UniProtKB/TrEMBL annotation:
It is found in: Membrane. It holds the Pfam family TerC. This is TerC family protein. The keyword Membrane applies. Keywords: Membrane, Transmembrane, Transmembrane helix. It comes from Mangrovimonas spongiae. It is a multi-pass membrane protein. Belongs to the TerC family. The chain crosses the membrane at residues 12-36, 48-71, 83-104, 135-155, 167-190, 202-219, 239-257. InterPro entries: Integral_membrane_TerC (IPR005496), MFS_trans_sf (IPR036259). GO terms for cellular component: membrane.
């Protein structure tokens, strides 16, 4: 296990996944803060910390469930025609559905942030919250909604890194725990940074589109899909790491240019 966690692929996956979990968790922090701010001041910090800790537990439980489904590799249905062959398994089905969901959710979020940036915040502000238990319940619902794309992102970043999917599960859990700890300790500085650089969150959502596409191709590869005799190959994770690192490098240069111009 330790040998796997110290490999270059595992370290790159952990760093990239932790970064994406934090970027994607910003909206979660904002919505949790809105819900918590409806409470008396002495309960706000408690509600926020409880919410984030419950988010961590909830995501770990969902990771175990999704990891179990992805471990079901045996085909339960086969499509075999003159031009198409697909051996459908639960693993391929989860990856394919997850990929479609990530692409849909990411494009919808990008459109909403451009055209209706305060839509979700207003919906939560309109909900009545009068007690700590109500706030925690509302936070749990918010966490569950945000857990879905978080888990699918984790699956996309770690699937195929090791033949034993339990190793990938440990890597995903470590990334989730680290990201939640960072969000608890540095929620306000991270939120201020994203508020002053909103392109970072849009960039994170764009990465999800890449991960969604990769999940779809992995589903096709793992189900031994062939169309007119042409099989679908797996996309090496290195391509994804390079695309994310290159995009962040360009964004960093953009930050520097904007900072120099403001001076």
């Amino acid at each position: 296990m330790l040998d796997f966690l110290l490999t270059g692929d595992a370290i790159m996956a952990l760093l990239t996944l932790t970064f994406l979990e934090i970027i994607l968790g910003i909206d979660n922090i904002v919505f949790i803060s809105i819900a918590a701010n409806k409470l008396p001041e002495h309960q706000r910090g408690k509600a926020t910390n409880i919410g984030l800790l419950l988010a961590m537990v909830q995501r770990i439980v969902l990771l175990f469930f999704v990891s179990f489904l992805i471990g079901l590799k045996e085909p339960f249905y086969t499509i075999n025609t003159d031009w198409l062959h697909i051996a459908i398994s639960w693993q391929a089905l989860i990856l394919f559905t997850g990929g479609l969901f990530l692409i849909y959710k990411s494009t919808s979020e990008i459109r909403e942030k451009v055209e209706m940036p305060d839509h979700d915040e207003k919906e939560i502000q309109n909900k009545k919250i009068t007690s700590l238990s109500q706030a925690v319940t509302q936070i749990l619902i918010i966490d569950f909604i945000f857990s879905i794309d978080s888990i699918l992102t984790a699956v996309g970043m770690t699937n195929g890194l090791h033949p034993n999917h339990n190793y990938a599960l440990v890597l995903m859990i470590i990334a989730v725990v680290i990201s939640i700890i960072i969000m608890i300790g540095f929620a306000n500085p991270i939120r201020k940074f994203i508020d002053s650089h909103p392109s970072m969150q849009v960039l994170g959502l764009a990465f999800l589109i890449l991960i969604g596409f990769m999940l779809i191709t992995e589903a096709a590869h793992l189900s031994h899909t062939s169309i007119f005799g042409q099989t679908v190959g797996a996309i090496p994770k290195g391509y994804l790491y390079f695309a994310i690192a290159f995009s962040l490098f360009v964004e960093f240069i953009n930050f520097r240019i904007q900072k120099n111009n403001s001076k």
